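Example (one chain per record):
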Amino acid sequence: MEGKCSTTAFNVAEQCRFILEGSRPIFRAKGLRNALLLSVASLLVLSPGVISAAPPPALTFAPIQNLSNDSGLATSPVVASVNNGVHQYVYVAWMDETPGKFTTFFTVSVDGKAFGITREFTGLGGPANPNTSGVQMAASGQYVYLTWKQGKATAYATSSDNGGHFASGLLSSGTAPGQSSASPAGVMTAQAVATNGTSAYFTWSDDETATGNGTIQFVATHDGGAHFTSPVQINTGESGRHRAVEDELAAVGDYVYAVWDSIWFTSSALGGVGSTWQNPLFLKPASCVLPCIGREPMISANGTNVYVTFPMGGAHGVSSYSVEIAVSHNNGKTFAPAMDISGPTLTNTREDQVVSYGMDVYVTSRGTPMGSSTTEQYAYVSTDSGNTFSAPIALASPPLSGPENGIGGLALDHSNGDVYIQWVHGSLSQVYISESVDRGSTWSSAQQVSASVSGVIAMGDPHGGQGPMAAAYGGHVYVVWEDMTTGNGDIYFTST
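Predicted structure:
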């Protein structure tokens, strides 16, 4: 698993997964900000309803802060934001080896600017695991949920007071409050979490089972983390006989959705309680047979709509990758056949991310134009609930110099509909961001956010985490990254 994206909202946050139901946002006019503008209206094959407007000015960012600033390697940062009408909470978590072994760290800001004390989750057994098993976070209302790999186990931390206090423990060992059994003995990896308030849902891959294929384990809490269900395997039937890693979650109301490679999907209409999971659906096109593979699925949902994206292509470089999306309009009961939205003009379109709100769906990936050696970040936009998509939209025109690094991410501001795409680019890698304020019709010019002198680590790099590296709410965007400027890796933050 190489990356997870984020949306954030009042009372609901999604890591490519957390959903807010409600009416269409009213788009606000933005103040002038000096920068070069990029209009991509001419590049779009627009779905019905896309608003034509001038692209937004550049964003103005506050001074960059070093949140870790310690002697050990700090890596794999994630960020989420929740507004309760009084405070703009911004949460940042990461993995840090300063204590002598990797440990999960957490800090919170109540105004989106200044951060308080840093909390360290200790006493949970072997070292925490950074990178692709690094910390994941979901936030909703006053609740904050974390999960990560701790030794060979899956750990959790829960807060019911906006990150002021936490309870923590292990989910996979059967020792969390309310559990009566553990998951099968093995190595727990690829953790994921989603929330819709007092309920939170956790999955992970157990990759050392008797079958050798791995299982997807599921645990829920329906009282803000006071009690948890025991682990349950959800990759049942035929899906249990295939590779089972790279899991993702989404939650809307009582519905919870799970997806994993290669590409399987299941859902529960009752919050995962008991035997309420549907038989897993196989979403990868039947025409895709080895060496063709589908992997690294991402998921978003709102209302009755569910969106699953994944790159599909040939293993070991046999053929180019395409960006595929499978869409359901009935709470995941059935899906339309997966469709290629990257089209014939791009090659190797990988590292997909997806967010959605109302009828709008945004996908991002990196890709290389046919006949070119330059890899850049692209957006794909639907304004009709995923039935049709725009042509690929290049977010940097002219292209940025140097190589594309790692995985890009999405942040959707549910207070006004603004959407942000962040990615890392360059030989001396830096964080870039592009914004749309008109439902993806136009995008701001690629804007450098970081100021590293030694390079930024992207999501999905050998030392990168799962993200999300950006969150948004109330006209503000919050960005975190791992930066090697101090020589050993620290976690940096800035906001608009």
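Caption: The chain has one domain: 7-495.
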